């Protein structure tokens, strides 16, 4: 099963510490070697983004930055694991690496399963 892991943070948090960069590089090397990591990446700031909103039958376009955003997705990983528990463990690991190697960082790690074509539409809550 595949999952999308989002790393959310304030946009003005600044550059990661060298210790975090090193720890994340090690984690990614191990993850790709084991097959758990499928893809990873950091995202450019919202100042370099565009949002398309559909409301009232109309599509509107807004270029960033978006002042109303308290937290943004700063990075992501696509992981492939056996089950929900393993996916949660990968998310906890990513949060722990941030906590240990960038102590002043505050944010969250969000794990969501990716629906495959064979799953059909994801269930609605």
Characterise the protein shown here:
The structure is a single chain. This protein is α+β, with helices and mostly antiparallel strands. It has a domain at 2-42 and 71-116: Alpha-Beta Plaits. The protein has 2 helices and 6 strands, in the order E-H-E-E-E-E-H-E. The protein has helices at 18-34, 84-101, and strands at residues 2-9, 37-42, 50-55, 58-63, 72-80, 107-113. It has a 4-stranded antiparallel β-sheet. Helix 1 (18-34) runs antiparallel to helix 2. The radius of gyration is 16 Å and the shape is flat.
Question: How are the elements arranged and paired?
Answer:
Blueprint: E1 2-9, H1 18-34, E2 37-42, E3 50-55, E4 58-63, E5 72-80, H2 84-101, E6 107-113
Antiparallel strand pairs: 1-5, 1-6, 2-5, 3-4
Helix pairs in contact: 1-2
Query: By CATH's scheme, which homologous superfamily of the domain at 2-42 and 71-116 applies?
Result: Dimeric alpha+beta barrel
The rounded distance between the terminal residues' Cα atoms is: 20 Å
Helix content class = 25-40%
CATH level-3 fold name of the domain at 2-42 and 71-116: Alpha-Beta Plaits
For the structure shown, list the relevant keywords.
125 residues, 6 strands, four-stranded antiparallel beta sheet, 2 helices, flat, Alpha-Beta Plaits
């Amino acid at each position: 099963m595949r999952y999308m892991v989002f790393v959310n943070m304030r946009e003005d948090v600044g550059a990661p510490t060298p210790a975090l960069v090193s720890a994340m590089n090690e984690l990614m090397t191990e993850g790709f070697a084991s097959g758990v990591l499928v893809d990873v990446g950091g995202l450019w700031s919202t100042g370099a983004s565009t949002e398309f909103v559909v409301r009232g039958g109309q599509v509107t376009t807004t270029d960033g930055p978006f002042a109303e955003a308290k937290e943004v997705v700063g990075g992501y990983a696509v992981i492939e694991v056996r089950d929900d528990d393993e996916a949660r463990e990968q998310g906890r690991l990513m949060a722990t690496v941030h906590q240990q190697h960038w102590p002043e960082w505050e944010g969250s790690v969000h794990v969501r399963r990716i629906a495959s074509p064979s799953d059909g539409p994801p269930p609605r809550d």
